[in-house]
Amino acid sequence: MKKRNYFLTGLISIFPLAITYFIINWLFIFFSEPGKKLINYFFSNYNSTIIEHIVGFILTFTFIYIVGVIISNVLGKKLYVLFEKLLAKIPLVSYIYNTIKQITDTLSISQKQAFEKVVYIEYPKNNIWTIALVTGESRDSKSVEYYQIFVPTTPNPTSGFMLFVKKDDVKETQMSIDEGLKIIISGGMLAPETNGI
Question: Which residues lie below 8 Å from residue 80, measured CB to CB, with a gap of 6+?
Fold first, then answer.
């Protein structure tokens, strides 16, 4: 059983690296093609894979930057939403796209300053503890202090519930946002041996 666990641990560790390498390698090769054509057109007698790779590298980052600029404006966002709606109508493609999008959204979520800290709350009932993320603070009409709490779902933390919870009913943790999200995404498989409850 231990050997099997070691294999699964190794597989889980290598899989993200392999996917990352595959995507970067594919993008590099894909965007290197225009660079190769330009080099062959202007320098038909000069064959250099180094120059081809440099041009391809520059084109890759330029293209990604331009896409980011376009999607950041109002018209670009509308076109992007329309594109996503079209993809959603294609059965297999929509499944693959949504899966990858959830992963990328999850990765980008931890980079945003939306979450202040990770806490535990008793939810959905007493003596059942849930990892939650603090998004803000407020007071009620009697000046009792509350946390605005976001309770993410597993394994997709981009959806969840927003709750107002009294500060006294919240248990603080020493976890970083990234650590908390890792536990949520993995369904508890990456949780530490001592949970701090």
Answer: 71
- All CATH 2.30.30 domain ranges of the chain, comma separated, are 117-185
CA separation, residue 83 to residues 31, 89, 143, 175 (Å): 21, 10, 47, 38
131 neighbors 183 (Cβ within 8 angstroms):
yes
Contact 133, 153 (CB under 8 A): no
pTM beyond cutoff 0.90: no
Cα separation of 2 and 48, whole Å?
50
| DSSP string for 160-187 | EEEEEEEGGGEEE----HHHHHHHHHTT
pLDDT digits (tens, 9 = 90+) for 7-25: 666 666 676 667 777 877 7
Task: Spell out the CATH class of 117-185.
Answer: mainly beta
